[in-house]
Amino acid sequence: MKIIKVQDQTMGGKAGFAQFDAALKQGASTFGLATGSTPITIYEEIVASDLDFSEKTSINLDEYVGLSGDDVQSYAYFMHEHLFNAKPFAQSYVPNGLAKDADAEVKRYEEIIDANPIDLQLLGLGQNGHIGFNEPGTSFSEKTHKVALTQSTIDANARFFEDENDVPRYAYSMGIASIMKSKNILLVAYGEAKAAAVAAMIEGPVTEDMPASVLQNHDNVTVIVDEAAASKLSDQVEFSEI
Question: Which of the residues 102, 119, 212, 230 could staple to 28 if both were Cys, CB 3.0 to 4.6 A apart?
């Protein structure tokens, strides 16, 4: 792993932007994208730049089951607000939250990934080490699948909804095996709350109890962390320049 330590999330956005810029210059055609607060500064840097994705493809990690793409809480809506409206791609794929047949939807989405090999996959990191919606215990061989959200995730999401009963209970997510097919992976983590997961991911054993630890088995991983998220790494870890 190449590990880059930055001062804060603003500098992390610049470092992440540099990874996207380099991938484009190297001929990348398909980008795996993520939602949540972590990638926002990267997307802000991209929106403010002259990077052109109009002939490129994007594939998102996940989407809530039961939400339409124009629902303000959907990940499709998030991507349009933070990136696609300003930087459209030739084709952007997000799981269909309203699909009537879950088995058919996950099969369809995995076929999209196979037909459009991901050159650069952006990931965040959960406090328990999850990547995408792949919680601890998820098989490393899992492909795109329907996930029952944990109660802690449901509780955390409740603040975004007027009624707790409206909070999605399921999501579609790329599986760990789907993510590992990406040619290059960029994982970004900020804050002290992520420090234990960062340390376990980089220096701990490779175990399904810590999903992100599987990245130790990938040949091309870049990790961007701020000082707080890096605070539990040992002195043996070497940091790279941006």
Answer: 119
**Sheet of strand 145-148: strand arrangement:** 62-64, 170-173, 145-148
- The question of whether 62 is a catalytic residue gets the answer yes
In this prediction, residue 13 has a pLDDT band, given cuts at 50, 70 and 90, of very high
Active-site residue (options: 21, 44, 96, 128): 128
Asked if 105 is an active-site residue, the reply is no
CA atoms within 13 A on the CB side of 5: 12
How far is 214 from 202, CA to CA, in rounded Å? 9
SS3 category, 131: strand
**pLDDT reading at 242 higher than 80:** no
Contacts of 134 (CB under 8 A, 6+ apart): 142, 147, 173, 175, 176, 179, 211
Mean pLDDT for 71-80 is: 96
CA pair distance 139, 166, nearest whole angstrom? 29
CA separation for the pair 214, 121 (Å, rounded): 14
Angle at 154 between CA 149 and CA 155, to 5 degrees: 150
CA 173 to chain centre: 10
Catalytic residue among 45, 60, 62, 226: 62
Annotated catalytic residue, options 63, 110, 135, 142 = 135
Tokens 């996950």 sit at which residue?
106
Considering the candidates 45, 82, 119, 130, report the single residue annotated as catalytic: 130
Contact 181, 220 (CB under 8 A): no
128 is catalytic: yes
